[in-house]
Design goal:
single chain, alpha/beta, 6-stranded mixed sheet, 4-stranded antiparallel sheet, 9 helices, globular
Length: 239
C-alpha cells in the first residue's frame, strides 16, 4: 500500500519464486518470477507441456502455487478468502482453449452472462451484446444454441464473453487457433483496443506468424523456467 501512496505502481500480477506440482509428480514450473504491469501486453509461448496452462490458471485464480507467492490486484491469493477470490475473478476475462460455454444457451445469452452477473439493465446488455457479436461477425447466429455451432463460432463467442465486461486482465489461450486469418486479425484488433483502454493482456499462442506480425513482448516457458523477451522493434530501436 505504501508503494502505491508513493506513486509507484503495483503490478497487476506478481509472482515470486513460484513453483507448481500436481500431487507427487515433478514440478511443472520452478522458481518463477514474473511481474505484469497494468496495461501491458504479452504473448505466452512454450511447447505443449511447458506449463502455459498452469501459469494462466494461477493468473485467473483457479490454481494456487505449490510454493512461492502469487499476488493479483495487490492481494496474495494464498491467503485470500473465497469471497475475495470471487470478486477478483469478475475483474478477469478468460478465453479457454476448450471454450467452456453454456452449451444449452444461445450465443447471445452466453455473451450476456458476465453483464447479468453484474446486475446491468437488460437494455444496456442488449446494446453491448449485439454490438460485440457484430464485431466478431456472429450477428446472424446470436439466437442459435451453442451446441449447434462450429468450433470457430464457439471460439468467437468465448472471446466475446471474455471481453464484454472490459476486464482489467484478459487471458486468452490460443484465441485465434480455430478461425481464418481475416477473423484472427479482427480479434487481435479487439484485444489491442482493450489494451489501449488499460486492460492487461496475455495471449498464449504457438503461432509464430501472430507473434511476428504484432510483435509484443513474449513470456517464454522452457525447462520449468520462464524468460521474458522484449518486442523486437523495441530492441531494434534501442540499437
Amino acid at each position: 500500500m505504501a508503494a502505491a501512496q508513493n506513486g509507484i505502481k503495483e503490478p497487476v500480477v506478481d509472482m515470486l519464486n513460484v513453483s507448481i506440482r500436481y500431487g507427487s509428480d515433478p514440478e511443472v514450473l520452478s522458481d518463477i518470477k514474473l511481474s505484469l504491469d497494468k496495461g501491458s501486453f504479452h504473448f505466452l509461448t512454450g511447447k505443449s507441456g511447458a506449463g502455459k496452462t498452469s501459469l494462466l490458471s494461477m493468473m485467473y485464480l483457479a490454481l494456487k502455487p505449490s510454493r512461492g507467492t502469487v499476488t493479483v490486484f495487490g492481494t496474495n491469493i494464498g491467503f485470500a478468502s473465497r469471497d475475495t477470490m470471487a470478486l477478483m475473478r469478475r475483474r478477469i476475462g478468460v478465453v479457454f482453449q476448450d471454450f467452456r460455454l453454456l452449451e444449452h444457451l444461445s450465443a447471445y445469452d452466453n455473451v450476456a452472462v458476465p453483464l447479468r452477473v453484474r446486475g446491468m439493465k437488460e437494455g444496456e446488455i442488449d446494446k453491448r451484446v449485439k454490438e460485440l457479436l457484430r464485431w466478431v461477425e456472429l450477428e446472424n447466429s446470436m439466437n442459435k444454441i451453442c451446441s449447434t455451432l462450429s468450433g470457430g463460432e464457439k471460439q468467437r463467442i468465448a472471446i466475446a464473453r471474455a471481453v464484454i465486461n472490459q476486464p482489467e486482465i484478459l487471458l486468452a489461450d490460443e484465441p485465434t487457433g480455430n478461425v481464418d486469418d481475416d477473423i484472427a486479425q479482427k480479434l487481435m484488433k479487439l484485444f489491442i483496443e482493450l489494451n489501449r483502454l488499460g486492460t492487461t493482456v496475455v495471449i498464449a499462442t504457438h503461432s509464430q506468424e501472430l507473434i511476428g506480425r504484432y510483435n509484443y513482448p513474449r513470456i517464454h516457458l522452457e525447462n520449468k523456467s520462464l524468460r521474458v523477451f522484449p518486442a523486437l522493434r523495441s530492441v531494434l530501436h534501442e540499437k
